[in-house]
Amino acid sequence: MQTDLFSLRDKTLLLTGGAGLYGRGLSSMLAQTGATLILAARDVAKLQVVADEETKKGNHVFAEALDQGDESSVMALHERINAQFGALHGLVNNAVLRPMKGANGAVEQFADSMRVNATGVMLMHRHFGQTMANAGRGSIVNIGSIQGMIGPSYELYTGTDMGDMPPDYFFHKGGMENLTRFYAALYGPKSVRVNCLSPGGFFNNQPEPFLSRYCEHTMLNRMADADDLGGAVIFLLSDASRYITGVNLPVDGGYTAK
Fold it and tell me: What is the pLDDT of residues 40-52, one digit of tens each?
């Protein structure tokens, strides 16, 4: 029996959005695997802080600029990575733009969201995924959301100033699930796997009425924290999941199963 099925040592990984709510925890956990980890986002200064923190621990982490909604920026990052590291072994599409703040947000905000969260995600698959397919190996993990699987639960927000949810997030996270299936089918014959991971609610100091209601709705009676997503992502990137592709994996404490 192989003992290194979960190993990512000596592999090259790209994580988009590596300094945000999900990204910082993912950066830390992926950096510890022994892989070379490249972080990419628009704010390189923030990423460089993360890269420096992880490098001090002896990990191999680099920060790169990326505007995911701009194809020329995606292509430039693709060129730089190929020149320095060759084809990726793993890609984690985690970057997200949240311009809409409520149901009546401007139409321009919806369009801006789609540029990054729909078109941009497609571009990442097109450019990086094709190179992985040409190399005959690799794994792509898309970070979705349970909000792409269910409708909004407005009752959770009663008595708080939260709850004015934007439609763009539900639209592009739902679309990400089927985009995952599309590229899983397209790249599967070239031994590139594509899967989606859909987190549930993430603790971010939300008001007490919401926290109590949300936790009661999960089977584990809590929200996710920074250590809850990385294990599933590592699994999907590793050879331990070598016969898994085109799936959506909820990591939500049982929220969508209840």
Answer: 999 999 999 999 9
Q: What one-character DSSP code corresponds to residue 93?
A: E
Q: Which domain holds residue 220?
A: 12-257
Around 76, how many Cα atoms within 13 Å sit in the side-chain half-sphere?
12
Q: How many domains does the chain have?
A: 1
Residue 152 lies in a domain: yes
Mark out the alpha helices in 32-119 (DSSP H runs): 44-56, 71-85, 107-114
Helix axes 23-31, 230-237, angle to 10 degrees: 50
Tokens of 176: 């990400």
Is position 5 within any domain?
no
Compute CA 222 distance to the chain's CA centroid, rounded to the nearest angstrom: 21
Beta strand extents in 99-145 (DSSP E only): 138-143
Question: pLDDT class for 196, splitting at 50, 70, 90?
Answer: very high
Ramachandran quadrant class, 37 (left: phi over 0; alpha: psi -120 to 50; beta: rest) = beta
| Residue closest to 13 by CA, chosen among 176, 191, 139 | 139
